[in-house]
Amino acid sequence: MTLKIKSLNQYKKAYKKSVKDPEGFWAEQAATFKWKKKWRKTLQWEFKSPDVKWFVGGKLNITENCLDRHLKTRGDQVALIWEPNDPSQAYKEYTYKELHTEVCRFANVLKANNIKKGDRVCFYMPMVAELAIGVLACARIGAIHSVVFAGFSANALADRIKDATCKMVICSDFNARGAKNIPVKAVVDDALKMRCKSIETVLVHRNTGEKVKMKKGRDKWLHEELEGKRKTCKAEVMDSEDPLFILYTSGSTGKPKGVVHTCGGYMVYTSFSFKNVFQYEDGDVYWCTADIGWITGHSYIIYGPLLSGATTIMSEGVPTYPDAGRFWHICEKHKVNQFYTAPTAIRALMAKGDHWPTHYDLNNLKVLGTVGEPINEEAWNWYYDKIGKGKTPIVDTWWQTETGGIMISGMGDIHPLKATHAGFPLPGIQPCLVTPDGEEIKGNDVEGLLCVKFPWPSMIRTTYGDHERCRQVYFSAFEDMYFTGDGARRDENGMYRIIGRVDDVINVSGHRMGTAEVENAVNEHSNVVESAVVGYPHHIKGEGIYAYVITDGMVKDENKFRKEVLAVVTKEIGPIAKPDKIQLVSGLPKTRSGKIMRRILRKIASGDTSNLGDISTLLNPEVVEEVKKGAKVLLSNE
Ligand code: WT7
After folding, report:
1. CB-based contacts of 391: which residues, under 8 Å, 6+ apart?
2. What residues form DSSP beta bridges with 367?
3. Closest atom of ligand 1 to CA, residue 408
4. 441 and 486 Cβ atoms separated by less than 8 Å
5. Are 565 and 546 in contact (CB under 8 A)?
6. Which residue lies with its CA nearest to atom 18 of ligand 1?
7. What gap in Å lies between CA 470 and CA 505, rounded to an integer?
């Protein structure tokens, strides 16, 4: 049995052991899984290259651990509940037996379409059950899944398909989202016009049933392909360190990078963290509202819960459709015990009024979780009082796409609760705070850059096709440490509080974005000469996107221009990257060496122009006044 920590004392003991003897600690956890061949070495590592390997030489298939392993003990238990966008439509349930069958049939479709171990398969799908099934089907045959969030544009999709040289795209016809049906297949068609030469097949899942174009020889209907497929499929033998999936995420420079996670360590850590953070007990019903297009969906809708034999819910809809009571309605309907969502959703629902949750029975809730961005005190309190009725612990889980699993967090009600604090590291996780010079800051009541100084099983192994980039971004800032990009505080009791990114990454509604990426998109507009994008505090989104733009002077109608910029960004990246504010400026504050002074721009965008520091050394100090004035006007139009 996986270690299930039940008290503070037990946590302290486990933590100590995990630091003193990490290999012994993780070997014990790994031993609870089904291996085809045992590993010969638990850990081999150095952070210089980096080169990290867990459970070296071990052979396994993660889907045997998610599915087959449970068939005897809980074959008839519900594994997956799919809750549709439209509440009047019936929900679907899959028992472990049924899910096993569906995954095998889907895996046989992949095989019949020439997908082999190591091939990359791209998913561009809404939150339909077939997405979870398809992802597991890839893992079954050793194909590497690369899920692209269905809110990304054709351009962004094409970039990701090309970067991973995917052989197949799996999509739906349309995405049923709130009151609208949004085209999905049509976006894939557009993406594939952009020289995605590696794609051989497009599998199309019929979701809403609306008409889509099918290209002969390339496009196939999933339901037709599934016809007559066998209900079993041998699980491919995978090495612990064979890639399981690629997931793209944004950094401060360049295009999004494909974070690579591998089979063995990811399996051990997602299951361990799931059980402990959520204090999942047999028979509980667990719901994570994330989209499978992000890491939260991978680790804590699919893998972590299924590895743990849990009942996991995935929901297609949005929090406010048909009304702001939808989340709580689903919690009541399925008697949800653990609920996991993002601060941005909490803030959006909070703004709709306190009465919504009161209409529903939320008494089954035992643990409430939050993830993706810092949670402000007001939202924390609302969640605690109105949803948890002042008695349900909140776990504020800090982690990243790169970490694969939750790193710093409460575990049910084991740790003391402190609003806005993620809390203590999970066993096996060795965070530290460092100065910009890389000096470790010891002791408590301190603040610094958040790093991790020892490997953990689910950590990033490489960035797909570019290992040097992985080294450069995460392992070159400080010697022998993984650098997270976040700043953090450790309070007098050793609890961590995440302050936010210290690089040029912004977090908009829990979606991570590189400011450079947005700038590149804005610059695609023919009248834009130069732009600078920064984040600014936004009451619902956490951070909003603020774009300062220098135009060529040919813009006659500013509002029309702003709309065009939004359209360009939507085309280049997707609607999630649309700037909330666009300010036309004649210049951007720059240093003598020509570097944009983002610090000043961030401050102005936050509405605080009190103390901008010494601007006399700027190349163009005169522009600051103008920028300040314009921002004041723009920000007062909230
Ligand atoms: C960044 C990672 C991990 C799943 C979702 C986001 C921020 C994440 C928290 C939290 C404060 C948080 C960090 C981190 N973040 N969780 N509980 N408190 N900040 O994954 O897209 O890879 O983004 O999200 O800044 O670096 P991601």
Report:
1. none
2. 338
3. 17
4. no
5. no
6. 374
7. 16
565 CA → ligand 1 middle, Å = 28
Supply the residue whose CA is at minimum distance from atom 3 of ligand 1.
400
Radius of gyration of the chain, Cα coordinates, nearest whole angstrom: 24
SS3 634: helix
What is the per-residue pLDDT for 609? 86
Identify the residues whose C-beta falls under 6 Å from ligand 1: 249, 294-296, 371-374, 396-401, 422, 484-486, 498, 500-501, 507, 512
pLDDT at 638: 65
What would the pLDDT profile of 304-313 be if each residue is shown by its tens digit?
Answer: 999 999 999 9
> What interhelical angle do 96-112 and 129-141 show, nearest 10?
60
Asked if 506 and 485 count as a contact pair (C-beta separation under 8 A), the reply is no
CA distance 78 to 99: 9
Tens digits of residue pLDDT in 299-337: 999 999 999 999 999 999 999 999 999 999 999 999 999
Amino acid at 328: W
Q: Please give the distance, rounded to the nearest whole angstrom, from the Cα atom of residue 397 to the centre of ligand 1.
A: 8
Taking the centre of ligand 1 as the mean of its atom positions, its distance from the CA of residue 253, in whole angstroms, is 18
Question: Hey, what amino acid is at 68?
Answer: D
Give 638 Cα–ligand 1 centroid separation in angstroms.
27
Sign, CA dihedral 114-117-118-123, equals positive
* pTM check: above 0.85: yes
Would you state the pLDDT for residue 616?
Answer: 85
In the predicted model, residues of the chain with pLDDT beneath 70 are 638
Place of tokens 């651990």: 65
Closest to 373 in 3D by CA, of 255, 248, 506: 506
- Which of ligand 1's atoms lies nearest the C-alpha of 375? 18
Distance in Å, CA 523 to ligand 1 centroid: 28
Q: If phi over 0 gives left and psi between -120 and 50 gives alpha, with beta otherwise, what is residue 303?
A: alpha
> In whole angstroms, how far apart are CA 471 and each of 50, 246, 295, 435?
6, 17, 21, 20
Per-residue pLDDT tens over the stretch 560-575:
999 999 999 999 999 9
Among left, alpha and beta (phi > 0; psi -120 to 50; other), residue 165 is left
Å from CA of 438 to ligand 1 middle: 22
Atom of ligand 1 nearest to the CA of 501: 25
For the CA atoms of 500, 501, 504, 507, the dihedral, rounded to the nearest 10 degrees, stands at -60
From the number of C-beta atoms within 10 Å of its C-beta (0-12, 13-18, 19+), residue 145 rates as buried
Write down the pLDDT at residue 617: 87
